[in-house]
Amino acid sequence: DNPLFGTATLGLVWALGRALHGPRVGVLAAAITAVSGFFFLNAASYFSHTWCGVLLLLAAYLSARSNRSPHVYPLLIGFLIRWAVVTRYFTGVLGGIVIITLLARTIGPRAVRPLLLVALGGVPWVFFLVGYSRALSGSMWRVTTTDLTLSLWFARGLALRGLGILWTHVVQFVVLAAP
Length: 179
Prior knowledge:
Elements: H1 2-21, H2 23-34, H3 37-43, H4 49-64, H5 72-87, H6 89-107, H7 112-121, H8 123-137, H9 158-176
């Protein structure tokens, strides 16, 4: 599936670049992405990064077009961002913040209603995550902390290890995705 999602990523990068800055930027952005080692690594793997990227790029594209698009777009944006959060917590949250900022900037002073619709669009995934967490750990507040799905980001003592985990991720990114 990831090679298909990788191909979709290139199309979405092109569309987002085009929507934000014109056709030349869209082509250039897609070309730069296409030759990126990080892009190849993830598009050829079974990692969830590629799917999360597709979700966030589609949400960003809808955000870029939100000033001239139907009111259903904010609901879809919220749904896509929350799906990305469920797919990859940290990536989804950081990407979602950027996309919501883009949406607010695109819409301008009348952004309150669309931002509420974004929040509403993510509600189904909140219920899914609550049920998932409860089924795995017995608590809706403990996210992926069973032996089967242990995540260091959500394990106890994160405040003491968080910077070490982040540093390890940065080093792995530089080593694995060097140009």
